[in-house]
Structures are given as C-alpha cells and as structure tokens.
Amino acid sequence: MAEANRQILLDRLPGGDKLAPEHFRLTEGAAPEAGEGEVLLRTRYISLDAANRAWMQGATYRSALESGQVMSGGALAEVVRSGVGHLAPGDLVFADTGWQDYAVLPGKRLAKLPPMQPMTHLMSVYGVAGLTAYFGLLDCGQPKAGDTVVVSAAAGSVGNIVGQIARIKGCRVVGIAGGEAKGRWLTEDLGFDQALDYKAADFKRQLRELGGIDVYFDNVGGDIFEACLFAMNLHGRIACCGALSQYDGAPPPHGPRGVPGLIVTKRLTLRGFVLYDFDARREEALAALKGWVESGQLKVQEDVIEGLENTPAALIGLLAGENRGKRMIKVR
Ligand code: NAP
Q1: Rounded to two decimals, what is the model's pTM?
Q2: CB under 6 Å to ligand 1: residues?
Q3: Is domain 4-124+301-330 given the CATH code 3.90.120.10 in the classification?
Q4: What would the pLDDT profile of 265-284 be if each residue is shown by its tens digit?
Q5: Fewer CB near the last or first residue (10 Å), C or N of the chain?
Q6: For residues 303 and 324, what is the distance between their CA atoms, to the nearest angstrom?
Q7: Which CATH superfamily is domain 128-275 in?
Q8: Is the pLDDT assigned to residue 83 strictly greater than 80?
C-alpha cells in the first residue's frame, strides 16, 4: 500500500490580512511516485522563513504562490527513490519540497549534501541563514575593525549570525530586537556589545546615542530602516537583505522618508543582494563558518518545533517574534 502523504495547503491567500491558521488546510493523500529523471524525497526538516510570507504577496525572486497549492518551503529531505545517477536512497538534499511528507522533484538540480551531525546545521549556520549573513555582511557591508555595525531582526536566524561575524571581525556590534529578554540573550550569550529594543518608546533616541552607524544590515525595512538611515555615518554602507516588517499585513502608508537627500549628503552605499548571487563562492563561506563554529567563536542557535501539523502556527509565531535563531519543523 502507498505511504500516506500529509500536505499543508495554502488554502486562501491572506492578501493584506495578517497571516492566520485559517489560511492553511491539512490534507492527506497517497505519496507520489518518482518517474525517470525524478527523485522521491521524504521531508525531514522544513525551514521556516519570513520570506514564506513575502512569497504570498506576488512574484519576487521566485514566482508568486497561489491559493490551493501545497505551501512552498525549503526543506532538508532524504532520498527515498532515485531516478538519477548522482543520488541514492539515504542521501540528503535541500530542496523546495513544500510543506508535505513526500515530494517528487526533477533530480537534475538536486545536489547531495555532506553528512553532518546534527543535520539541522545544514539548514541553519551552513544553510541559507549562515550564507546570507556571511555574504551580506562581508560583501555588501564591507565592515572594518572598529566599525559600528547595526543589525535588525538581530535575534532571528540571519541576524544573530550577522552580529556574531561582525564581532569576530572586530566591530562594535549593536543588535535591534524586540524585548529585553532577546536583548539580554544577544549581549550575554552571543557577545553583542549592545542591544536596542525597537518596541521601546525611546528607541530612536538610543539609536542616535550610538554616535553613528558605519554598517547597517537591514532585515526589516520600514521605520527601522528609516531610523537607521538618519543615524548613518558618512560613507556608511547598508546591506539590504530583506524587509520583513512589510511582509505580513497591509502595505505601509508611506516609504522611508528622507531617502534620496540623506543618501547623497552622507555618500551612503545601499546594496541589495540575493543569496543565489554568491553560489560560486559557497565553499569559501562554508569553510569560514565551519572554522568559527569549531573554534567556538560562532554559536549556533536553532529553534526546532515537532510535527508537520504545527508548521502554519510556527510561521505565524516567527512573524510575531517567537523565535530565537533558525526556526524549523521536524516533520515526524
Ligand atoms: P528571522 O530572522 O527569523 O526573523 C524573524 C524575526 O523578525 C522575528 O523573530 C521578529 O523578532 C522580527 N520581526 C518580525 N516582525 C518585525 C518587524 N515588524 N520589525 C522588526 N522586526 C520584526 O527571519 P529570516 O527568515 O532569517 O529573515 C530575515 C530577513 O532576511 C528577512 O527579511 C528575509 O526576507 C531576509 N532574507 C534574505 C535573503 C537574501 O538572499 N537576500 C535570504 C534569506 C533571508 P523581534 O522579536 O525582534 O521582533
């Protein structure tokens, strides 16, 4: 008898509403079968990313999601049956399996991952989060020792690694995160020099009192981006990684103010990037990240939630700030 395949469908696009459980639906059918050139994958860990919500807004660097489809999402998956020569049962890959137990994908674009203990590190520090932090900070931010580096969503999966790499490079590191508890974690456990709570009434004053930002790593856009722009030093660099404050809910009433004038007078460099731009330099980044993890300079923080059925709530919770570090679902 065919194995059961649980699937979480994006039942209804949220539009300008906050993402909620009723936008998803759990169904069950038979596991698919792999044909020639295809691979049957069993999903082990699903990556939860703020970007999952952004894909519901329309086409980005990938096509827009549609209602009724299996919710898209990257995952660590194990090969069950392979119709291609370079993959065998038991191999691990990272692929867009979507939120389901099993998926069939063309084998051509799937690459075997190295064995790793724990395997979850392939999705956190040695996956999208670590690589995005590495290239975004070092290539786009160009930090120098002694620079003041500020990162937003600092306790999230990308942000906590950005701050730790900046500290390794000898920078003064300031993390922006919601709430005192996250701030304490950043300074006491991860070695950030300072943390600012963007929900505090005096956030903007605290930001001004930093005495100028050389590198701002922007994960959130919106008001925090605007506040940091006004606090930049001459010749400052802004690495534009994402705009997660704009992903969930209605579009903002206005964009950041003062942008063109400030960029000119402060001679700022703003650089947007997408991780795929750096595919050719993946091994360089992995070697550096591995060195820092093994020497204890870079701590890996993972937030693992059990059960495919909990994936929608886990994404909604991530957008609300529940997570510390890389959030993922252990499928079963
Ligand atoms: P994440 O860091 O885990 O972020 C979630 C955190 O963001 C939450 O815990 C919450 O923490 C904070 N947050 C939520 N709403 C916020 C708001 N309105 N203002 C400020 N902070 C808010 O998520 P992630 O998946 O790693 O993504 C981080 C950013 O990187 C996203 O913008 C994503 O699109 C981007 N990204 C870009 C690339 C690329 O190639 N360019 C690749 C990967 C990710 P608090 O408690 O602090 O609010």
Answers
A1: 0.96
A2: 49-51, 54, 128-129, 132, 152-153, 155-159, 177-179, 182, 198, 219-220, 224, 241-245, 273-275, 318-319, 321, 323
A3: no
A4: 999 999 999 999 999 999 99
A5: N
A6: 6
A7: NAD(P)-binding Rossmann-like Domain (3.40.50.720)
A8: yes
